[in-house]
Amino acid sequence: MLKKRIIAVILIKDNLVVQSENFKHVNVIHSDTKIAIETFSGWSIDEIILINVSNKNSEKKFLDLLNNIVKKVFVPITVGGWITDLDYASELFKSGADKISINTEFYRNINFAKSLSDKFGKQSIIASIDYKFDKNTNIKSVHIDRGKESVNLDPLSWALKLEPFVGEIFLTSIDHEGKRNGYDLEMIRKISSNIKTPIITFGGVSNYEHLYQGFLAGASAVAAANFFHYKEFSTILANKYLRNKNINLRKIYD
Predict the structure, then answer these.
(1) Is 98 a catalytic residue?
(2) Are strands 139-144 and 125-134 parallel, antiparallel or unpaired?
């Protein structure tokens, strides 16, 4: 049986690590991104997801950052943000990324997902699905462009369309993100029971029980950003808590 995973998410804006709430990035958590990444690497995290939330035209700086940190980090790294073509994707992999995560460009051009899968292998491609409750339509709909634009598409329907081309789904409830009320368990159950692709769930964690509930709902990996940043040895303690709950995680310091 494949082991479950704990993932730290690091949101990077202008080379600073920022806090997020409903996709608004205002508070700076760390002024030195490399220290934050190296800290999680030393805290027995399973994987790290780096998301570039800077403005457009920040790709070169992000590549430079990635080149500088991968030499000191010994866990798999996924990167996301402003990936719109094969050339930039190739540069990210050359700079040390193990996987790439994409949201907006897959919606604008689903053939891009196929091209990436064909070139790099679907196991290295993650579809990021952000969604939010729409008061006008009374449904939870997929959002693109960093949560700014609703595309009136059900998250499950979109996951099913992307499934042939990606190795994982990175599922984020914008309504829950940064609110500390736990994951959207209903949506995790809905999608995980209808697709075979592993789900990484993100958005809303404020305690270890929230991580546990995410696994029970069907996630293959649980991810958090703000919560892990503000507690010493957070990911080590999360591993111990979840293993005590009989979640099939790797032993720390393996």
Answers:
(1) no
(2) antiparallel
Looking at the DSSP bridge assignments, the partners of residue 101 are 80, 126
Q: How far is CA 41 from the centre of its chain?
A: 16
pTM over 0.70: yes
Distance CA 155, CA 165 (A): 16
CB 182 within 8 A of CB 216: no
Is residue 73 pLDDT above 60, yes or no?
yes
pLDDT in tens, 180-219: 999 999 999 999 999 999 999 999 999 999 999 999 999 9
Q: Which of 14, 85, 98, 130 is catalytic?
A: 130
Q: Find how far residue 56's CA is from the centre of its chain.
A: 19
50, 12 Cβ separation under 8 angstroms: yes
